[in-house]
Amino acid sequence: QLQASGGGLVQAGGSLRVSCAASGSIVSIGGMGWYRQVPGKQRELVAGITQTFRTSYADSVKGRFTISRDSAKNTVYLKMNSLKPEDTAVYYCYANVVRMGTYWGQGTLVTVSS
After folding, report:
1. Phi first, then psi: what are they for 74, rounded to 5°?
2. How far is residue 96's CA from residue 40's CA, in Å, rounded to a whole number?
3. What is the pLDDT of residue 24?
4. pLDDT tens digits for 42-95?
5. Dihedral, CA atoms, 34, 42, 89, 64, nearest 10 degrees?
6. Nearest to 46 by CA among 114, 113, 99, 107
7. Helix, strand, coil percent content, the chain, rounded in steps of 5
8. Residue 106 φ/ψ region, left for φ over 0, alpha for ψ in the -120 to 50 degree band, beta for the rest
9. How many Cα atoms sit within 13 Å of 3 on the Cβ side?
10. What number is the average pLDDT over the span 94-100?
11. pLDDT of 91
12. Residue 87 near residue 70 (C-beta atoms within 8 A)
């Protein structure tokens, strides 16, 4: 399973880091990353990181968000800087677990006040 943490309330321009740890009988994890969703809108891919640490970002967060992972801890992080009110959403992590499929975290709410 995946356990996300670190969401909360922050003022515009502030920073926040969310984390997501995978646990259980995991042999290996391929890609990991984060989506976000605002009520009434489709889930949006925010950032992804491969097993070889190649990263990708949505245009809306490039230069402000940084994704990283600790493979030994099966954990993915998303550091969010220069937050904007439009970044407010529930952030969901995912992990592509080898031979087991894609797993999702429970979501963590990030609220950016103006």
Report:
1. 50, 45
2. 26
3. 82
4. 999 999 999 999 999 999 999 999 999 999 999 999 999 999 999 999 999 999
5. 50
6. 107
7. 5, 55, 40
8. alpha
9. 6
10. 91
11. 97
12. no
